[in-house]
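User: For my dataset I need records formatted as: sequence, then structure tokens, nothing else. Please produce one.
Assistant:
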Amino acid sequence: MGLIGDDIFGREILKIILEHTGVDYSGIVVRKGASTSYTVAINPPGIDRIFLHFPGANDLFGYEDMRWHDIDRVRHLRFG
């Protein structure tokens, strides 16, 4: 389960999941008007990596976005 925006990043995430995994992504909620979260990793030579993170829809995910009727089908849970 997760929350993504109805932007180009969100559409690409769903497309990649469908094309490359065949996994049922019905637990992913698409929030109209929200932006999908992303992180840019910068790895300049000789220094530690730098991460630029935009939390986007991750900051909006809440109780109302949970698909409680699907919980009994879950085989793996990662909370973060």
